[in-house]
Amino acid sequence: MKHQIVIVYRLTIFLVCLTVILLAINLLKKEDEKIKKEKLEKEEFTEWEEKNEIEYKANETIRVKFSKTGEVVAMDMNDYLRGVVPSEMPPSYNIEALKSQALVARTYTYRKIAEHGEGSDADICDSSAHCQAFYPKEKLFEIWRNRGFTDDMIKEYWSKVNEAVVSTQNQIITYNNEPIKAFFHASSPIKTESVDQIWGGVSIPYLQAVENVEAEDYANRTSEVWLTYDELLNKFLESGYDVCLDDIKQICVCDYTTSGRVKNIQIGNTKVSAEKMRTLFSLKSTMFNITKDEKNVCFHVTGYGHGIGMSQVGANYLASQNKKYDEIIKYYYTGVEIKTLKN
Ligand SMILES: [Zn+2]
Predict the structure, then answer these.
(1) More confident residue, 11 or 219
(2) So what's the pLDDT on residue 138?
(3) pLDDT at position 51
(4) Which element (helix H / strand E) includes 179?
(5) What is the Å distance from ligand 1's center to 126 Cα?
(6) Span 9-25, mean pLDDT?
(7) Ligand 1 centroid to 305 CA: how many Å?
(8) Alpha-carbon span 287 to 283, nearest angstrom
(9) What's the confidence (pLDDT) of residue 55?
(10) Can you tell me whether residue 81 is helix, strand or coil?
(11) What is the spatial distance between Cα 313 and Cα 161, in angstroms, rounded to a whole number?
C-alpha cells in the first residue's frame, strides 16, 4: 500500500514537472515567434525607409543647435527641413500645402543663416519661440506613435514630408532678390493681416492682408474665453496696469485694424493693444468681439495666430481646390517670386 502511494506520488510529481516543462517550451516558442515577427516588421520598415532614401538628394550642411542641451549637430539641409515641416504643419495636410510649408521653412532658414542669428557656432536652433520647431526623424516618429498614428500612417506622412522637401529642393521665396520674412500662422478664416497693423513699423509690400477662405470644420476656427470681472482686473493689475473694477466693467473695443481685427481695447482711460490681450488671456487671435453679462466677460475669437503671411488652414483649403504650392505662396505673399538657389 505504502509502495503504491509512493508510485502515485512520483507519477504526480513527474506529470506536474512535464506540464511545467511543456508550458515553458510553449511560452518560449511564442516569445520567439513574437521576436521574429517584430524583427520582420522592423526589417520591412527599414527596407521601406531605405527605398524612400533613393529619392533623397544630399544638400548643403547646416548646424542645428538643440536648445535644451546646447548641443550643436551638423546635418544635411534636407534632413533639417524634413524635421521642420511636420513640426510646423500637420503632416495629414495636402501635399501642395506641405510643399508651401517647405518653401516657407527653407526661406526662413536661409534668412536666419544670413543674419547669423544663432552666433558663430550654429546656424539655427530647434526652438519654435526663437527660430522654427524641429524634431529629428526618430523623435517625430515617437511623437506620432504616441498620438496613435499606425505604422502605415507614419510611412504615408513621412513620404509626403520627404516629397514636400525634396521636390522643392533649393527653392526659396524672394522679394527684390532677398529671401522674404516668411511669417505664417494657423488660421484666419476671413482675411489675413498686414504686418504693420499688428507689430507697427513700416508696411512690408509682400506682407499685406488678403481675403482668405478656410475649411469650416477646422477645430480652432472659433473659440471662446470666459473671464469674471475680478479675473480680468487681477490680471491687469498683475501686469502693471492702473485700472479699477469700474473700468473693467466698461471694457470695449477701441479701434480695429484695416482687416477688421481688434487693434486696441479700452478700459477706462487705459488703452491695451489686442496683441497684449492675446498673450495676457491666451486668446487664439486678435479677431474677437466682446460680450458681457453681470459677472463675466466673454471673448468670441475667430482664427488662430497673428494672421500675418500664409494661413496654413487656408493653404490646405487652396490645395484642396487644386492650387499648386507656387500659387499658394504667391496668393499669401503679395508680389513675391520663387527662386531656385544654385548648389
Ligand atoms: Zn534660434
Answers:
(1) 219
(2) 94
(3) 43
(4) strand 178-179
(5) 6
(6) 77
(7) 20
(8) 9
(9) 40
(10) helix
(11) 17
Q: How far is the CA of 104 from the centre of ligand 1 (A)?
A: 16
What torsion do the CA atoms of 194, 216, 319, 57 make, to the nearest 10 degrees? 80
Cα 258 to middle of ligand 1, angstroms = 32
**Cα distances (angstroms) measured from residue 333 to each of 183, 193, 258:** 9, 11, 17
Radius of gyration of the chain (CA): 29
Is the pLDDT at 129 greater than 60, yes or no? Answer: yes
Higher pLDDT, 53 or 261: 261
CA of 108 to the centre of ligand 1 (A): 11
The predicted-structure confidence for 284-329, as pLDDT tens digits, reads as follows 999 999 999 999 999 999 999 999 999 999 999 999 999 999 999 9
Rounded-to-integer distance, Cα 104 and Cα 95, Å: 14
Q: In this predicted structure, what is the pLDDT of residue 35?
A: 63
Contact 69, 136 (CB under 8 A): no
Using the mean position of ligand 1's atoms as its centre, give its distance from the Cα of residue 221 in Å: 29
What share of the chain in percent tops pLDDT 90? 76
- Check residue 304 and report its DSSP letter: B
Ligand 1 mean position, distance from CA 85 (Å): 16
pLDDT at 39: 57
Tell me if 91 sits within 8 A of 153, measured CB to CB.
Answer: no
What distance in angstroms lies between residue 279's CA and the mean position of ligand 1's atoms? 21
Calpha distance 274→280 (Å, rounded): 10
Give the three-state DSSP class for 7. Answer: helix
CA distance 212 to 239: 34
Higher pLDDT, 15 or 315: 315
Q: How far is the CA of 120 from the centre of ligand 1 (A)?
A: 12
How far away, in angstroms, is 132 Cα from ligand 1 center? 7
H or E element that contains 235: helix 229-238
Q: How far apart are CA 196 and CA 96, in angstroms?
A: 29
pTM, two decimals, is 0.81
Q: How far is the CA of 163 from the centre of ligand 1 (A)?
A: 26
Residue 146: count of CB within 10 angstroms of its CB: 8
Domain ranges for the chain, please list them.
61-184+310-340, 222-302
